[in-house]
Design brief:
The chain has about 425 residues and is of the alpha/beta class. Among the domains are: about 130 residues, Rossmann fold, CATH 3.40.50; about 160 residues, Rossmann fold (3-Layer(aba) Sandwich). The chain is about 40% helix and about 15% strand. It has 13 helices and twelve strands. The strands form two sheets. The chain has a seven-stranded mixed sheet with strand order 9-8-7-6-10-11-12, with helices on both faces. A five-stranded mixed sheet has the order 1-2-4-3-5. Strand 3, helix 3 and strand 4 form a beta-alpha-beta unit. Helix 3 packs across helix 13, helix 4 packs across helix 5 and helix 6 packs parallel to helix 12. The longest helix has 26 residues. The protein is globular, with a radius of gyration of 21 Å. The two termini are about 35 Å apart. The relative contact order is 0.13. The mean pLDDT is about 95. The chain binds nicotinamide-adenine-dinucleotide. The site of nicotinamide-adenine-dinucleotide (NAD) has 23 residues, from helix 7 and strand 7. One of its GO terms (molecular function) is glutamate dehydrogenase (NAD+) activity. It holds the Pfam family ELFV_dehydrog. Belongs to the Glu/Leu/Phe/Val dehydrogenases family. This is Glutamate dehydrogenase.
């Protein structure tokens, strides 16, 4: 249970996803030595902005949506983190996602703090015109907070390069000049980076493959089960498949699909593009949603939303390795069960850091207006992910802790060292 006094804007009986983060910070505090003096800094987001986003709907009425931008910490550099469009977005969730960005950027040693944004909306209910108006108004409302040197949004659940293009254009129109560096994950023709689309899935693959090697398993023929078949899940599926692994199960919003012989992710993507659902996917049988967690496999990749692996299902997991493509998919209690059962968890703050790493490359390329080849980008990404994995693995071995705790030790130390060196203003 959370020990420290909560900020007044959190409900102590229902803290929401931020509770997971607070518990993770409490677990790491004993390892922070003299820096523990500053630990409260990690628990308090630096800034929270809640905005009203009113738009005209196509039927002529006006609709209001809740928008958020949270800058959790900027001790190590400008805020960085995605924007989520989802009907369940709330303050606690955006706070947690912003905090995990602080940890992730520090764990991989990118020169950023942590931030996140979101709008409480189901974008499937909006037309393209409504989505554009929503995005432009939201960008204007948070406009004074973001900027290439202040806070740089990116895509997250249900946002994509087109949404980033509208954000960049809106910010630029308000500024009076084009500022490509205000968001990352843009289309390549607008200052986006090659390799960004697959970057998160690629990082999931690189860290998953490293973990397989460390536990003595082969990538060739490894069975992989994936929850979420969007940007992260589908890219991870393709890259694991391309490297000889077998995708035995895919779960998304449309159902759970299983094949002992393996699902071809390229065919699944074609099916999804043609039908808008995985229902009816040839060669795969549909199984119960709850059966997904007990699927026989070596690698399990949650790549949908947070709080999916809980006390209720962690004990069913048969995988040797869980690679967290999603942010916050595992609750602390589930983490303990997995550790006791000998399951190696590659934590979100490492496993899905490929996206923000290539976002960092995009930002650097935009500043210099000099663009790299896809091979250069992938090679640099792979190196950063491998090195981060190796150093966290060593910390985990030395302290006899999980990879998650190791990631938090390294990240919190970096963040608090910066805090201590900068001191408090005034
Ligand atoms: N896109 C990135 O670069 C990036 C980077 C780091 C972390 N992440 C995290 O990865 C996760 C997925 O992000 P994304 O960009 O792939 O989103 P996305 O919108 O492209 O895909 C989400 C997928 O999850 C599925 N899904 C949604 N609700 C589900 C449910 N209840 N059960 C099963 N499946 C469900 C959807 O059907 C879809 O396939 C999120 O946690 C996000 O924060 C994304």
């Amino acid at each position: 249970m959370i020990q420290h006094p909560l900020p007044s804007y959190l409900d102590k009986d229902n803290i929401g996803p931020y509770e997971i983060y607070l518990e993770q910070v409490e677990r790491v505090t004993p390892y922070l030595g003299r820096l523990a003096y500053w630990a409260e800094t990690l628990k308090r987001p630096k800034r929270i902005l809640v905005v009203d986003v009113p738009i005209h709907l196509d039927d002529g009425s006006v609709a209001h949506f809740e928008g958020y931008r949270v800058q959790h910490n900027t001790s190590r550099g400008p805020g960085k983190g995605g924007v989520r469009y989802h009907q369940d977005v709330n303050l606690s969730e955006v706070m947690a996602l912003a905090a995990w960005m602080t940890i992730k950027n520090a764990a991989v040693n990118l020169p950023y703090g942590g931030a996140k944004g979101g709008i409480r909306v189901d974008p499937r209910t909006l037309s393209q015109g409504e989505l554009e108006r929503l995005t432009r108004r939201y960008t204007t409302e948070i406009g004074f907070l973001i900027g290439p040197e202040k806070d740089i949004p990116a895509p997250d659940v249900n946002t994509n390069p087109q949404v980033m293009a509208w954000m960049m254009d809106t910010y630029s129109m308000n500024l009076g000049r084009t500022a490509t560096g205000v968001v990352t994950g843009k289309p390549v023709s607008l200052g986006g980076s090659l390799g960004r689309g697959d970057a998160t899935g690629r990082g999931v693959f690189v860290t998953g493959a490293e973990a397989l090697t460390r536990v003595g398993l082969s990538l060739e023929g490894a069975r992989v089960a994936i929850q979420g078949f969007g940007n992260v899940g589908s890219a991870a599926a393709r890259i694991f498949f391309d490297n000889g692994a077998k995708i035995v199960a895919i779960q998304d919003i449309s159902g759970t699909f299983y094949s002992e012989a393996g699902i071809d992710p390229y065919k699944a993507l074609e099916h999804l593009a043609a039908h808008g659902t995985l229902q009816g996917l040839a060669g795969a049988e549909e199984i119960q949603k709850s059966e997904f967690w007990g699927v026989d496999c070596e690698v399990l990749i949650p790549a949908a939303l947070e709080r999916q692996i809980t006390e209720a299902n962690a004990g069913q997991i048969r995988a040797r390795i869980v690679v967290e493509g999603a942010n916050g998919p595992t609750t602390p209690a589930a983490d303990d069960i997995l550790r006791e059962n000998g399951v190696t968890v590659v934590p979100d703050v490492l496993a899905n850091a490929g996206g923000v790493t290539v976002s960092y490359f995009e930002w650097v390329q935009d500043f210099s207006s000099y663009f790299w080849t896809e091979d250069e980008i992938n090679a640099r990404l792979d190196r950063i992910m491998r090195e981060a994995f190796a150093s966290l693995w060593d910390v985990a071995q030395n302290h006899k802790v999980t990879l998650r705790t190791a990631a938090y030790i390294v990240a919190c130390t970096r963040v608090l060292e910066a805090r201590a060196l900068r001191g408090l203003y005034p």
